[in-house]
Amino acid sequence: MSLVVINNAGILRDVSFAKMKDTDWDLVYRVHLRGAYKVTKAAWPYMREQNWGRIIMTTSVAGMNILYYFVGTTYVLTLTFLLKQYTGLQGNFGQANYSAAKLGLVGFAQTLAQEGKKQNILVNTIAPVAGSRMTATIMPPDLVEALKPEYVSPLVAFLCSEDCNFTGQTFEGTHTVIISMLTVAYASTL
Fold it and tell me: What is the mean pLDDT of the chain?
């Protein structure tokens, strides 16, 4: 039996740090970081026992620069893929709790990638740009529709497959170039 864990749970409690309550901080931490810890901790011994496992953490690119402009009826996107622009590294106003939790997931994944490599437990992180309930409040409706979450699925499927040999990697903006390259490469092996 192949074990795969995808830690994708997330919530927002946006409020400036000056107005943030402990409950705002604690709830975001518990869902994002502690939730990923508990699920991964439960699966880890089984993955070690079978000498195989795949773990995917979901972080955020909410702080990335997304430039878009309207051409006819199509949005053209230019995404700045710089690590410094992660929410966790750059921050977003009103998201100290979210930024800390999301960057914590990257560090958690990096450590598990090192610890699991000998047992063929591969751990990677995705930082997707996708339209969702969480992004619908900050993106135009047409852009939310254009960035369907299912565009990220082929990359996640590849990272969870036996064909994947990546570990300790973070894939940013996964709905664009990376997903196209890996989908073509993976599909050609089927």
Answer: 79
Residue pLDDT, tens place only, 55-64 = 999 988 653 4
For 72-120, where are the E strands, in sequence order? Answer: 74-79
Residue whose structure tokens are 């994944």:
109
**Residue of 29, 46, 98, 186 marked active site:** 98
**Both tokens of residue 153?**
């699925």
CA–CA separation, 7 and 33 (whole Å):
9
CA–CA dist 139, 145 (Å, integer):
10
Tell me the per-residue pLDDT of 169-178, one tens digit each, with 9 for 90 and over: 988 764 444 4
Q: Any idea what the CATH number is for the domain that residue 25 is in?
A: 3.40.50.720
Q: Is 29 a catalytic residue?
A: no
Containing domain of residue 42, as a range? 4-187
